[in-house]
Amino acid sequence: MTHKHPEMKMFLQDADFFLDWAEGKENRDVQLIFPLPFRELNLMKNKTLSLSNLLQYTLSDLINSPEKSINLFHCLNELGDHSLVEEIQQYLRSGSINKAKLSSSQWSAVAFVLLASEKMPDEFDINKFVEGNNETKKLEVFQKLLPVIKESRSVQSNPSHLRQLTLSNNNLGSSGVHFLSTVLKDPQCKLKNLCLWECGITDEGCAALASALRSNPEHLRHLDLSNNNLKDTGVKLLSAGLKTLHSLEKLWLWRCRFTVEGFTALASTLKSNPEHLKDLNLSANKVGNSLTLLSEVLRDPRCKLERLQLYCCSLTVEGCAALASALRSNPSHLRQLDLSDSKIGDSVVNQLSAVLEDPRCKLEKLWLRGFGVTGEGCAALTSALRSNPEHLRNLNLSNNNLGQSGRKLLSDLRADPHYKLQKLQI
């Protein structure tokens, strides 16, 4: 191994080839065995390299083992070579690391600096490390820096401090999600917010996430899997994992391409544990008539949902009527409701207006864009707002055939001394 540097024994490995380093020179007694392929050996054979230069050739192989990577840089520091670490520290301090074109050894140094930091970050956003929309590059960097997330507790005596992880707009695929799930399964993982918007996740990834959630259900508060091709199979698998979560407050699954089958499974899960969820976005999925199932959740007095987004969901009159009925039973918690882009009509608008009239109703934002509202619906809404004007601040009635009568009713409402709307879109 080495006579002059015994501390290197912890990471240098036996290999098939022996480099008699600097033969015939003063370092004749330094004999090293490195795990280098033929190509690297051929490239190096006519070069004169310092020991620290030679060590850096092995970084790309060692980064998958954080302990070895740390040992390697400790050895480089012992040899007086701080250049790579100092370069990376400068990038991190200036906030320009996402603009830098780093080599494999430099990304190893990034991992080392982050792992060795006395204060681990509370938030990890891949976009802070890679600029633009280069999915391949982001995935490469994500894979290199996952040990930072997974192994941070091995550098510090306390558990990982990571609370928010954003990997949005990256094609992680099944392999990336499986890798991430191993982190989430660890009982020492205290992650609260996980955003995987548009990450190429399918039903296979959902199965891995569900398994991780069942293994470690205590901490996750926010989960965003929007714009992934989960379909019904993926949502059913995910729903099984969500049943074990004790404190999920935010769930976003918009444009995940599921239908009534997936929605039914999800509604069943939410019904079994309605106490904590505050923010639910299921927009741009074919919910259809299964909204009646979610309405049963909203009717439950334990339900404290504050924000519900169901735009572009192919809603039905029956489903929306069930929703309005549930809100009449439990009107105190919902603050934002978006039912846009489903041509439902005035019958449901009249029922929603009855909810708004209730003094217990605290709704602040109501979006009914493209909802089939006419002058009749406007009459019901304006009457409700005159009766209970205290809370609603944002009303969107754009892309509806309100007619002259409806527009006049809304115009007259503005003149009411109790008018509190801050934003009205028609």
Explain the overall architecture:
This protein has helices at residues 38-44, 51-56, 59-62, 66-78, 83-94, 104-116, 135-155, 173-185, 203-215, 231-242, 260-272, 291-299, 317-329, 346-357, 375-387, 403-414, and strands at residues 123-125, 164-166, 193-195, 222-224, 250-252, 279-281, 307-309, 336-338, 365-367, 394-396, 423-425. It has 426 residues and is an alpha/beta fold. It has a domain at 1-119. The chain has an eleven-stranded parallel sheet with strand order 1-2-3-4-5-6-7-8-9-10-11, with no helix packed on it. The longest helix has 21 residues, at 135-155. The radius of gyration is 29 Å and the shape is elongated.
List the helices and strands and how they pair.
Elements lengths: L37 H7 L6 H6 L2 H4 L3 H13 L4 H12 L9 H13 L6 E3 L9 H21 L8 E3 L6 H13 L7 E3 L7 H13 L6 E3 L6 H12 L7 E3 L7 H13 L6 E3 L9 H9 L7 E3 L7 H13 L6 E3 L7 H12 L7 E3 L7 H13 L6 E3 L6 H12 L8 E3 L1
Parallel strand pairs: 1-2, 2-3, 3-4, 4-5, 5-6, 6-7, 7-8, 8-9, 9-10, 10-11
Query: Quick one: overall form?
Result: elongated
Radius of gyration: 29 Å
- Cα distance spanning the termini: 78 Å
| Multimeric status of the protein | single chain
Task: Say how many strands there are.
Answer: 11
Task: Give the strand order of the largest sheet, numbering strands 1, 2, ... along the chain.
Answer: 1-2-3-4-5-6-7-8-9-10-11
What is the arithmetic mean of pLDDT? Answer: 79
Note the main sheet: 11 strands, parallel
- pLDDT < 50 runs, ≥5 residues: 1-36, 60-64, 152-160
Sheet/helix structural class = alpha/beta
